[in-house]
Structures are given as structure tokens and as C-alpha cells.
Design brief:
By secondary structure, the chain is mainly alpha-helical. It has a domain at 18-46. 70% of the residues lie in helices and 0% in strands.
Length: 66
Amino acid sequence: MNEFFMWFTRPENSKLFVLLLFFTVYGLILLYVFTGKKRSSRLESYKNIPFEEGDETAPQSKENEQ
């Protein structure tokens, strides 16, 4: 067991492990985001947010009142 920790502490070995770890986490995040019918329909509705009109009930700034 001690030999494994010594192998892991060498930079050339730990870099590969971290690369695989981040790649796996990135892949899992992509699977989570793009699978599921409810989630995909919700994400699909977000694409139009920049084109929607602003909230009409938003308070006006003091500069606009003068």
C-alpha cells in the first residue's frame, strides 16, 4: 500500500490521474445536463431569454423620473 502512495506522488503519475478525473467529471456533467426530458425542455426555453421583453413592473431609476 505504501508503494502505491509513492507511485501516486510522482508528478508524471498524478497528472494522468487528475486528467482522467476531470474528464470523467466533465462527461458526467454533460450527461446530466443534456439527458432527461424535463431538463432538456427547460434548457430549450432558456435560449430565448435575451430576446424577451423586460419586466414592465421594474422600478424606474431616479434619473428617468426627472
